[in-house]
Specification:
Blueprint: H1 3-30, H2 33-59, H3 74-103, H4 111-140, H5 145-151, H6 155-184, H7 188-216, H8 223-234, E1 239-251, E2 254-263, H9 269-286, E3 290-297
Parallel strand pairs: 2-3
Antiparallel strand pairs: 1-2
Helix pairs in contact: 1-2, 1-4, 1-6, 2-3, 2-6, 2-7, 3-7, 4-6, 6-7
Length: 303
């Protein structure tokens, strides 16, 4: 579990816990549907961060006879559960609650408290988002945020970033809905805000679920990294040709790589073993994310 990821999760959990308690208090006081759905959203986020902590902890366990490749994908499973919770507890609940309030509007009151809390919550969520962006900065490099979230195997950071982005946008939607209900005296705006927040959470949940499902189905690392691996092996002084390369993401920033390599003629079997061991040692030094490396010497089939 990286320090940066742990810090980002802890910051997000602390922010969401405080915001959730405040939102429930103000929702009960104002009877605002948008505020209630935002409170449920923040509560779901707290549970999500705790799930991610458990998944990250499980993923750090060493390989065993029962799990010879380790448990790196435990973080992926936790992230998938987070997507399910975000879809059901956050998205579906907000959507149903919003539709109910649109069909049966209830005029909220004391909306000044709701506005004040939402502005405060936006500030806290912005701090949480900034922390997650800092944690992802080194791995992200010059890639756009969207591309990073599509390609990264650090699902705990991807989920936190997605949740924080959804929370920020959801808070802005809730603030606009409350202000419209307050200015017009029409309670339907409050329900409309809840519906929009629900649709937003469902969209984010589908995105996270799709990306994590791909990783659970043994996704390959980005093409650029696979090209670097192949080029590195090809440049080895004892390698004649790379016949095949298979790389699979087996955890957050963890790879399993299988190589089929035609080596140059070696004077003996021991010399071939030494060439294989030297190649493995150089690859592990150059690509520390490789957790399991298998090199099979072979020759190109004759036509």
């Amino acid at each position: 579990m990286s320090t940066a990821s742990s810090r980002a999760l802890a910051l997000s959990l602390g922010a969401n816990l405080g915001i959730a308690l405040a939102k429930f208090t103000v929702a009960a006081f104002t009877r605002s549907a948008s505020m209630l759905t935002e409170a449920v959203h923040s509560t779901a986020d707290c549970g999500n961060q705790m799930l991610l902590f458990v998944g990250m902890k499980q993923s750090q366990k060493p390989p065993t006879a029962q799990h010879p490749l380790g448990r790196g994908q435990a973080a992926f499973v936790a992230s998938f559960l987070v997507a399910l919770l975000l879809f059901t507890v956050g998205g579906i609940y907000s959507l149903v609650e919003g539709v109910h309030k649109v069909l049966h509007p209830v005029q909220p009151h004391h909306l000044g408290w709701a506005v004040g809390l939402l502005v405060f919550a936006i500030g806290l969520e912005a701090l949480s988002m900034a922390g997650a962006l800092r944690a992802a900065k080194e791995e992200r490099g010059r890639r756009s945020l969207w591309r990073y979230m599509r390609e990264s195997s650090a699902t705990e950071l991807v989920v936190v970033l997605a949740e924080d982005a959804a929370a920020l946008l959801g808070l802005v939607i809730a603030l606009v809905a409350v202000l419209l209900a307050w200015a017009t005296g029409n309670a339907i705006w409050d329900g409309v805000g809840s519906v929009l927040i629900g649709l937003l959470l469902i969209a984010v949940a589908l995105f996270v679920g799709r990306e994590v499902t791909s990783l659970l189905l043994n996704e390959a690392p980005p093409l650029a990294l696979r090209a670097k691996l192949r080029a590195f092996v090809s440049q080895d002084p004892q390698v004649e040709q790379v016949l095949n390369l298979i790389a699979v993401v087996i955890g957050s920033d963890r790879l399993m790589v299988s190589l089929q390599v035609q080596f140059k003629n070696q004077p003996s079997g021991d010399a071939l073993v030494d060439a294989i061991n030297a190649l493995e040692q150089r690859m592990r030094a150059a690509f520390p994310h490789i957790q399991h490396l298998f090199v099979e010497p072979d020759r190109k089939a004759q036509a």
